[in-house]
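User: We ran a pulldown and think these components assemble together. Before we commit to crystallization trials, I'd like a predicted model of the whole complex to look at. Sequences follow.
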Amino acid sequence: MIHYSGNVSIQLNVNREIHEVVVMPQDTLLRVLREKIGYTGPKAGCENGDCGACTVLMDGKPVKACLMLAVEAVGKEVLTVEGLEDTEIQKAFISEGGFQCGFCTAGFLMNAFALLETNPDADEAEKKDWLSANLCRCTGYEGIEKALTLAQKNVQEKNSNKR
Amino acid sequence: MIAYNLDYFKPETTQEAYECMKTLKEDKVNALYYSGGTEVITNLRKGAFKADAVIDLKGIGEMSEILVDDEYIVVGANVPLNVMIEHSELQSLKSILNKIADHTVRNALTIGGNICGKLPFREAVLPLLALNSLVKWVDENGINESLLRDVFDKRLKLPPNAFLYQIMIPRKVGGKMMSKRMEAHTEVDYPVLHVVMSVSDTEVFVGLSGFASFPVYQLIPRNEYDEWSDPVGSIAGLFEKDAKSDERASKEYRVHLLKNQIALFTGGAYDSL
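Assistant: Here's a predicted model for the assembly, 436 residues in total across the polymer chains.
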């Protein structure tokens, strides 16, 4: 049985790199990513699971890093927004202006990226279901929607060219 | 940030988990079983409840699986709601479970956590009660089994230190089941009223979440129900005493919504799930 108490050294796989970090069992994944490893892309918004600004991917699935203990991520692959460089969703958010203040952007990017990886042909209902997990206090939803639409089109084209 | 020290245990067997809890309790350590963590972490951070240790049940392999046999779909208590929603054998539950929390949270939120949590909604229990599911739980005698209806009254009533292990959902259920969920403002919110109603040859089930300070349900023998001249008023009458008023809605409004929905259900306005 695994037992962690006090300061413990764990290995976390974040953005395809292994990081050796000293954490305490009560440390959330969000705090460890930001304060111990230095990935400040995931944001501490509500820290209550409501806003989605802290969203990261855990083994390919979006999760809220504020609702997860860092020790739970041992043996998993964690991907933060820093790991999305040169992806279609990143390019589309830039070209369509999918952000205003930018605080929520990392969360939307992670969720939109995971959606297009999981189902590039997602319909409007599925897109709404996935992205309802993220809030934009600037209400910049139109740009986000346009960015997702463009990224989806580009991902679909890429996939059809591969076939 | 959780502002005090916590010990983290991750057992690999049911016996290890139970013994771990028993030992911690004997040592006066305030310990919690832990699965998805979505409710526990928030409440520990806010100080809504205190724990010195959590016992993460996700190390117990069979509690994270869905198995299908001739009679039952056996769902481990650690299975996240999204895994259930995506499972081909559980499509009748999809439109109920996919209203709980949001898509991202549902990747972590487990069926066991939703049913056993401290939040008053526990919406996932409604269809499981309607379908007359069985539950398995672990206590000092090992793995026990009973009808969910026998151990659920407002909350899951398990012996001290016991934990939910699996849920067995019957594959062949006659009749039809309907549901409707209403929120005060946005879809991603706790319900003002979530009604699940099922009608079979032998019984009528009506279960509610968000209506009272805990999930409530009633079973009405079909022959008795068929004799009611005013089924809408009669069903609402069974629940009226439990209705609550809070910042989301008044008691009167909740009763009004309930009557409306029962009228729509009984009038055939909704398709069966």
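Residues 63-170 of chain B form a domain with the Uridine Diphospho-n-acetylenolpyruvylglucosamine Reductase; domain 3 fold (CATH 3.30.465.10). That may be worth checking against your pulldown data before setting up trials.

User: Thanks, that helps.
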